[in-house]
Design the sequence.
């Protein structure tokens, strides 16, 4: 059974940093690109970032480019999102998601974690 | 960026009746080399992550009831629930994966009339 378990969320002040983790199991993690998607309270879905299979290629939404860094450790089956210079508008539930098929590019997603709440507030 | 526009924002349908949700992309998401539409539909229930329903615009994900169907090509797509059940109450999103940034529609909330 595929499982994606996010951790590391919480309350942080504007300008602060946070590192999210997503522990994957139930599939061959090193065969799939992985993605972070967020959802502000009561709002729709927003793609944040994708990392390819090897970790050598990364993709970012303009809204987070230069502030967030996606990475992965295939030996630990874990996806990360380092979030710096956080703003109030980054407040959201952050989901990690698995590519539906073994493309090295950002695609669509067949499994999602339960999500982790990040609140940016003073 | 490809803008995804869903309509309506919400709809109320009687149990057993048909629900139709539209999704329009600002440019074609049909990839000519493989003739596939890079368009997916998700269902999201309150407090849950999105669930994949339909990919390649019309291919139903394994385990998804056959009352859910997707159609369309190019820039205009439709998700149809042929006979609405109580458990189908949710918000539905389309997403294009033709290029980055990946973009989602604003969502359509489906309720029981």
Sequence:
């Amino acid at each position: 059974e595929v499982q994606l378990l996010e951790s590391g969320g919480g309350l942080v002040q504007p300008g602060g940093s946070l590192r999210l983790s997503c522990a994957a199991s139930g599939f061959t993690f090193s065969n799939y690109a992985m993605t972070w998607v967020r959802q502000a309270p009561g709002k729709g879905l927003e793609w944040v970032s994708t990392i390819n299979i090897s970790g050598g290629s990364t993709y970012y939404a303009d809204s987070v480019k230069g502030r967030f860094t996606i990475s992965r450790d295939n030996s630990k089956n874990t996806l990360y999102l380092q979030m710096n210079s956080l703003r109030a508008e980054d407040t959201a539930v952050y989901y990690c998601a698995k590519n539906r098929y073994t493309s090295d590019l950002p695609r669509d997603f067949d499994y999602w974690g339960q999500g982790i709440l990040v609140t940016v507030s003073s | 960026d490809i803008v995804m526009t869903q309509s309506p924002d919400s709809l109320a349908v009687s149990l057993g009746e048909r629900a139709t949700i539209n999704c329009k992309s600002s440019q074609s998401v049909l990839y000519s080399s493989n003739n596939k539409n890079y368009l997916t539909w998700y269902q999201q229930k309150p407090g849950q992550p999105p669930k994949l329903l339909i990919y390649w615009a019309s291919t139903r994900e394994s385990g998804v009831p056959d009352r859910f169907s997707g159609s369309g090509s190019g820039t205009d797509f439709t998700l149809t629930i042929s006979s609405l059940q109580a458990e189908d109450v949710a918000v539905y999103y389309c997403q294009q994966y033709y290029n980055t940034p990946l973009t989602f529609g604003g969502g359509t909330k489906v309720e029981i009339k």
The mean pLDDT of chain A is 97.
